[in-house]
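Form P-L/3: holo structure prediction, ligand zinc ion.
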Amino acid sequence: MERGTRFIRHIYRVLLDLVLPPRCVVCGRVETWLCEACAQRIPLSDRPVCPRCGDAWEGSGVCTRCRTTPLHLASIHSVFVYQDAIRDAIHALKYRGGWEIARPLASRMAEAWRTRRLTSDMLVPVPLHIDREAQRGYNQSQLLAHHLAAQTGLPLAETLLFRIRATASQARLGPRERWSNVKDAFTCVEAHDLSGLCVTLVDDVATTGATLDACAVALLARGARMVSAITLAHAV
Ligand SMILES: [Zn+2]
Ligand SMILES: [Zn+2]
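OUTPUT (holo model):
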């Protein structure tokens, strides 16, 4: 999108939020983008998926893509399918200042973490570029990771991974471009040695897995034994 158009859309949203206060994306109650009670009722994803990349897949073993070009990630676990109320909630979380709904959403991530008996040595949020974080005021993945760590007792490494360069928004790119857009975009803080550790990345949405995989490459280069990911939602 052109810069001018983006700015106008941003102003439009800001004005809209002034006129229309946040409303729960499920029940419409005013004050929050998602009530705690409504967040509890959204069904967790139970569709059959590829055990590696988390894409919808009904075959046995891993999907065709993972058989031909496997990810660096050991697995991507997603809690919801990116549709309906969850899509609206994530939109509010990212673009409408709805930082407070990270907590009820992360509690569903913690529920999935326990039900699926996942394990890890530490949680690492997918970093935003510093400019985008400044514009948004927060990093939604960091908020989700923070609440998930609090609810599971897992250690959280918030400043371990960072973006070396700004990247175009993945949402506007085709599947092929998404991989080249994020390649070599991440690195780890020098002093960290992750030897032998199993690390879990935390993000809001997994689409192609390109961003998560680029993060995994940086963590593996630092000695991590295995890198997995948990996301709030997975593309339909
Ligand atoms: Zn509600
Ligand atoms: Zn797969």
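COMMENT: The chain has nine helices and six strands.
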